[in-house]
Amino acid sequence: MLSLLAMLWVPNALALGCGDITKMLDANVPAKFVVQTIQESGSKLSAEDVRCLVKAGAPEDVVAAARGSGTAAAAPASSAPATDAAAKPAAKSASKSEQARAAYDSTEALGGSRSGARGGKRSLEDQAGTEEEAADTRDPDKLEQAIRAYQSKKPLQSSQLLRELLKEGAFPQKEGRIQYYLGASLFDLGLYHSAQYYFIEVVKKGPSNPNFKFALPKLVEIARYTGDDYDLARIVAKVPVEEFPRQARDELYYLLGVRLYEQDKLSDARKAFGQVSERSPRFTRAKYFEGVIFNKQGKLKSAVKSFTEVAKADVEAANPRELAAFNQLRELSLLNIARVYYGIQRFDEAKSYYEMVPRESIYWPESLFEGAWTNFMLSDLNLSLGQLLTLRSPFYGNDEFVPETKVLQALTFFNLCEYGDVDRILNEFDGTYRPMNQELMDVVKQYSSEEGKKLADQAYLRYFGANPRETLLPRAMFSRILRNQELAGLVTHLELMEREQELIRQQKATWKDSVGEELNRVIEQDRERLTRRAGLAMLREMTTLSNYLKNLTGQVDIIRFEVVDARRVDYTYKMQNVDLNDTSSRLQVDFATSADRIYWPFNGEFWKDELGYYYYAEQGNCR
Fold first, then answer.
1. Rounded to a whole number, what is the distance in angstroms from the first to the last CA of the chain?
2. 10 Å Cβ neighbour count for 359?
3. In percent, how much of the chain has pLDDT > 70?
């Protein structure tokens, strides 16, 4: 029957158009047969044909088939022999969105520039030129109605109208404009992830799309809010710098610098950071990265100069969150200057910079620990032990994961010839950290293969999901893991998506069952992708921590060996001096103290105002 209908209504397959299809529908030909006829005809229906079918009230599947016939390219004949379908299982086909993302990732540049849209590169969807040609034309009535609703502060109404236009495919040459206003409507509703999805679709079309210059700054704003700029950074790397919109240029140069830095293109990254204006909120962060790059390149004077500029900078923050971020950057710069001086063994200068980090800083425990190492190198062992005591206090012990304190404490007591204390500390290290490292190694190994990496979302949910499994890993370790900015941004982003879905559930049924249904589909799809990214970031941090603990374990074994050797020397000395009398009980020890300070004995209780001021009075047993 199908072939007869096709012969009746389509005498020439190449001539199939809206009129032919509507005739079939008017003759009550079932929609599935009409769809099959379109697919078998080989015709490529135009956008005008699609609009004609929508206007004529054609069934949705017929419109979809017509739209697909115009965009799908004919597959070239393969020269390879056909394979037996039963010989091996068919590979799981990628979803449409996965295919689009793969195409996007493999593309080095987005679209063409505005100046060369007709003769240069095309966008991923190959529509940038078409939209530019239509940019000056009047919007169709339905689109104008939707835009007026947006401009009238009616984002629910506008988003519903715009979503219907996208679903119908009524105005393909205006797709970027529809997507931009749909993103803007969702942004006004506080649905930032959903808005980001549509803005990215606009930006993918390239700079020649007239809405590109408006969508990209919106993506910058959303990334600042979510703290997750991964997708934006991927986009920036594909955009020619001359096409950066003026209002977002500084942010985009900064993100380009970060992307180049991650690729170890240090000189190019520094050039990108150098393009960030001094008036930009990103300037101090760009200057900080400049210091990091100089340090990696061995240009230590330049590194110290850049970090000093950040430490001395005086900026006006737009809100408390930005002020806190800047203060942390300033404190981190002081820490890095100290590290540079420590690295070149200028310990006195390193000590002075460690002491500049404020006590209320989140980096103060870190500066205290590294300062303890500095005092150890300066042979001020009692001050070093006092600083380590602060880090073991309840104020920091549960929040700071610094297992190296045990190693430094053992080394210090070893230098004081207190071998019993060294044994005790090393046993505490083994009992606490070896089981932790075993769990880390097991988890990392489980997800280390290519197949395992595809299941990284399960690793993330194991520790951060709604029902986390029991673990030996302490809260302090996860606090340290979450200092990874990529992972912290992803955690925030995933939480935002949950709140977004709750907001969608609160809307009226008419909107929730149309626009909301589509947004939930996008969120669920992206949740899987973001959770996998979070799992991979977490596993990278766990790998780093596992290697760190493995290194410390090696140091512990060396110290234990040195203790055995030192005891052997001590026993030999005593055997050779059997007439040596122990006169230590008769010694009058004078604990001299500074005249401008009052010293109180430590009774095991920690007081916050005493933290950082502890000082041991250990004389040691070295002969």
1. 107
2. 12
3. 73
Tell me the pLDDT tens digit for each residue of 508-545: 999 999 999 999 999 999 999 999 999 999 999 999 99
For 548, the token pair is: 């760190």
Which parts of the chain register pLDDT below 50?
1-15, 70-94, 115-136, 583-595, 603, 606-607
Give the separation between CA 442 and CA 6, rounded to whole angstroms. Answer: 63
d(CA 30, CA 602): 90
Q: Report the pLDDT value the prediction gives residue 72, as an integer from 0 to 100.
A: 33
Sign of CA dihedral 42, 44, 49, 50: positive
CA distance 3 to 265: 61
b/e burial code for range 132-149 (CB count within 10 A of at least 16 → b): bebeeeeeeebbeebbeb
Sorted by sequence, the CB contacts under 8 Å of residue 269 that are 6+ apart come out as 257, 258, 260, 261, 289, 293
User: Residues with Cβ < 8 Å from 98, sequence gap 6 or more?
Assistant: none
CA distance 460 to 468: 9
**Whole-Å CA distances, 213 to 112, 205, 246:** 13, 11, 9
Cα gap 189→201, rounded to integer Å: 19
Residue for token digits 């970060």? 258
Indicate the pTM of the whole model.
0.70
Structure tokens at 146: 């939707």
The confidence score (pLDDT) of residue 238 equals 85
DSSP secondary structure letter of residue 30: -
Contact predicate 457/473, CB 8 Å = no
What residue type is 329 in one-letter code? L
As given in the structure block, the two tokens for residue 248 are 């977002």
Helix (H, G, I), strand (E, B) or coil at 105: helix
What is the structure's pLDDT at 448? Answer: 93
Helices (H) and strands (E) in the chain, counts: 30, 0
Sign of the CA dihedral 127, 132, 138, 142? positive
